[in-house]
Amino acid sequence: MSIPDPLEDVDWLEKQIEESRKSNIDVEGLLNKQHMQYEAAKMRFKERFPKKAKWLDRQLEKAAEGAQLREEGRSEFVRI
């Protein structure tokens, strides 16, 4: 209640974009680091549990499908 709602502030989006630019955060670098950590963790799992490699791939595939369905549902809800 002490700060305006984004709907009440017509310049809200521009302010958010400007703050993001000023932050100097390397988004691509962070994403690459996260991807490398993900791949390393997956490789460690497969090396430690080789018989479960296919199981892990299926589980990750299911998780990705679930996330995609969730986002499709959110997008449809917003669209409607």
What's the topology here?
Elements lengths: L11 H11 L4 H22 L4 H27 L1
Structure at a glance:
With 80 residues, the protein is mainly alpha-helical.
Descriptive terms for the model:
single chain, 80 residues, mainly alpha, elongated
What would you say this structure looks like, in words?
- The model has no long low-confidence stretch (mean pLDDT 92).
- The protein has a domain at 25-79.
- The chain has helices at 12-22, 27-48, 53-79.
- The chain is elongated and about 55 Å long.
- It has 80 residues and is an all-alpha fold.
- It has three helices and no strands.
The helix tally amounts to 3
Structural class: mainly alpha
Radius of gyration: 20 Å
| Percentage of residues in helical conformation | over 70%
What low-confidence regions span 5 or more consecutive residues with pLDDT below 50?
none
Number of strands: 0
* Distance linking N and C termini: 28 Å
Strand content: under 5%
Mean pLDDT equals 92
Question: Which shape, going by the Cα principal axes?
Answer: elongated
Q: Describe the largest sheet.
A: none
